Fold:
Amino acid sequence: MLIQLVSSALIWAYKTSLIFFVLPILLLLVWRLWRFTIRPWLRPLEPKEIPYWIPCHTVGFLRSSDKLIEHGLNLTGNNHEVFAVQTVDRKLYIVTDPQDVSAVFRDTASLGFDGYLNELLISFGFTKAAIKKIWHKPSDDDEKMISETINPERMNFIHLAEDIFKRQLLLGEKMDRIRDDIMGTLDQSLHWRQLDFCTKSYHAKGRQISLYSLCRFTMVEAATRSLFGSHLHNIDPDVVDHMLSFGDHAWQVIFRLPTFLNLDVIAPRKKLMDALRVFVQLPESQRSEQAWAIKNVLDASDSFDIDFESRACVLLLMFWAANANEHNIAFWVISHLLYDENLLELVKRETEAAWSNDTLDINYLSANCPHLEAAFNEALRCYGGAVISRKVLQKTVIGNKELQPGHAIIMPSRQLHMNESAWGYDARQFDHTRFLKNRSLDRHPAFRPFGGGVTYCPGRVLAKQQVYGLVAILFRRFDMKLAMGNNGIKPQFPGLDDTTPRLGIADPAKGMDVMVDMWEK
Ligand code: HEM
Ligand SMILES: *[C@@H]1O[C@H](CO)[C@@H](O)[C@H](O)[C@H]1NC(C)=O
Ligand SMILES: *[C@@H]1O[C@H](CO)[C@@H](O)[C@H](O)[C@H]1NC(C)=O
Ligand SMILES: *[C@@H]1O[C@H](CO)[C@@H](O)[C@H](O)[C@H]1NC(C)=O
Ligand SMILES: *[C@@H]1O[C@H](CO)[C@@H](O)[C@H](O)[C@H]1NC(C)=O
Structure:
């Protein structure tokens, strides 16, 4: 029937000498019918694919991943089965069912993080020579790589570097040190006279500040000093600005946008790499303030004979991981506190109790602030949009769908966080009380702000403490009130930015901010 149709159309086209025009269109129609109607029907195990004429979904994905995913969900009748999106060079399997996400995290044999990480490192500028070395599994002959102090478990360089960072962030002495450094820097940054950088205007005994600017600078400043001491600041005094600017545009690296587009990420990345390149070549005696993890990753780089360029890349990746989300989550938590006076009073009472003699007891703070905790978790749920990726290593089945090797899996955690069967009809509303009513809700499989499986964020405890510390210091030192609009009206709560692909906690929509009237106590 189809063949008849095609041949009679061809004859007709030939007769009307329109063949050169009609043939390609006809072939395209047939191909599309085959690809998106007949083939899926013949192969029910294959994830349904969002139909396309030319495979340039990457562009759509970059412009609005939320829209593209909604489109895919519509296509599959919103039953949350795995579906696929074709990009230029591969398929992305989109996984949105909480149970399927858990299955992906469990199946480390067929679904790997390494392949994805490898691509990430290449995007970050890793040299070809170093790429070979970092996946080399040390054998008996590689004495330097398996020394007792550095690598008794004989991991390859990348797994070793991940492991070093995990050990840095495990509860204990190493973590205390980095946490205390962060608190010390926050304590220093948050003095009345030092807040000019975020001040928009001055008024009777007080000032009006931009909350967004306040959170951005203080959080990144603190994390930078906790990792590198004063060394990076000494090499480049603007390193915090460069990291902020890099973070704003890092998605361009992650999604491998071609550099001829004159990307915004290029300049800050160059400045950070310039500083890190100098840093990694300093003799160890001049890196005395570096964190334990930085020292150990550099020692391991020596043993594995990794070149300086690639060492700087590894550090950039770690430096960025520590900074990618903190300022945004702090912004959302504090914004909600300022918009909800009752909640703010409760939180103030909780954090005030963690102070004694002008020192902050951070362990007390993290264990005894149920309202702050609920607001923090709810902010992670509402604004956490990490897109977690895996690479399919061998054929595997996830939720009745067969995934083919070579392609990528994408798990947009926002889909889970807005799932109405998990969170109720008001899933789109910020309501911290849901976490108060059910204290184990933070273990729900549809709550994945920190990812899961082998790459479950090792910084999650530090992240929480850094935000709580900022809140505790701010509200102890200053009276802070939401600034009203021109005619005394409460300004609208900022929406979130959906113009750039999200890698973690969402930014506020461009141009949106929260202005705060502030007085010294
Ligand atoms: C609210 C703040 C944070 C959020 C929402 C967050 C989220 C995440 C997520 C979703 C992943 C998994 C990525 C994947 O599987 O593809 C991850 C990994 C990671 N995070 Fe965080 N993170 C935060 C704070 C931090 C902090 C403060 C640090 C370090 C000081 C950190 C260090 C890391 C590292 C090193 C990894 C990679 C782990 C690995 O490769 O095994 N994160 N984070
Ligand atoms: C998905 O379906 C809903 C309801 O039918 C519709 O309003 C929405 O525009 C669709 N979204 C996309 C991206 O196609
Ligand atoms: C509080 O500080 C004062 C003066 O610095 C000191 O004498 C006192 O012992 C401190 N108390 C505690 C509980 O640390
Ligand atoms: C929510 O998750 C369940 C699986 O737990 C899934 O069946 C359902 O379709 C999802 N619903 C929405 C609206 O995301
Ligand atoms: C609380 O949350 C957990 C998921 O973490 C869920 O299994 C449980 O049913 C919830 N309890 C109530 C009373 O809603």
Notes: The mean pLDDT is 88. Residues 67, 70-71, 74 surround 2-acetamido-2-deoxy-beta-D-glucopyranose (ligand 2) (CB under 6 Å). The chain is about 50% helix and 10% strand.
